[in-house]
Amino acid sequence: MNQLLPGLLITFFLYMISSYIKSRIGIQYINKYLIAAVIGIAFMLIFKIPYETYKPGGDFITFFLSPMVVILAIPLYRNFHAISKHKIIFIVGCMFAVGLNFVLLFIALRFFAVDDVLKTAIYTKSITGAMAMALNETLGADPSLAILLVSFAGITGGLTGGLIIKWFKIKSTMAKGIGMGAVSHLVGSMTIHEHSGEEAGAVASTTLGTVGIMTAILLPLIINHL
């Protein structure tokens, strides 16, 4: 228990202070996860806290996060009829998101010398952490690297995706939900649920699951050709 305590306390502290800052700054799409990440990194560097000290408590929390994804099924259940009206748009949107992700990453990686382990992790950056870890492990890549890239994609996607929605004045619930769920998975789903309502959050959470399944099916088939 003593090994878990530092990680648990640091995480609790970061959550509380980031929630407070978020409530005070009033900037709509600056999410608390970005604030917590910045403060957490600075805190551990200033006080010279090694990652090994934080890791047991962090792993303990992570263990409970994967099952909590099931909670996202609640808004889906409540808004199922609204989503089902646009099922063709939803399916095509998810397929387009997966295809575009693969194509853009394939083009970008042509310009860099990237080994297979990093390449696999990069291709799984836009699915949930639990799926990314399992998929990378199956493909012989590094699950810890995958979760790092997933976290980065979630935090940055939640911010930039929200700003794009605001700047381009996107009103469609389906467009906002599919976009945020496909690009920034759980963080994006929570962000859009908070700012655009339960229906948009339900679309986003359904999207992240669908995109994750599509990626898990397709990537093992094509990874050797990418």
Short descriptors:
single chain; 226 residues; mainly alpha; 11 helices; 80% helix
Write a brief structural summary:
The protein is an all-alpha fold and 226 residues long. It has eleven helices and no strands.
Protein architecture, described:
The protein is mainly α. It has a domain of about 160 residues. The protein is about 80% helix and about 0% strand. It has eleven helices and no strands.
Number of strands: 0
CA(first)-CA(last) distance: 44 Å
Overall geometry comes to globular
Number of helical regions: 11
Rg calc: 18 Å
H/E series, N to C? HHHHHHHHHHH
Structural class: mainly alpha
> Fraction of residues in helices?
over 70%
- Low-confidence runs (pLDDT<50, min 5 residues)? none
What is the subunit arrangement here? single chain
The largest sheet is: none
Mean pLDDT: 85
Strand content: under 5%
Tell me the layout of helices and strands.
Elements lengths: L4 H21 L6 H15 L4 H18 L4 H6 L1 H5 L2 H23 L6 H8 L5 H10 L4 H25 L5 H24 L1 H25 L4
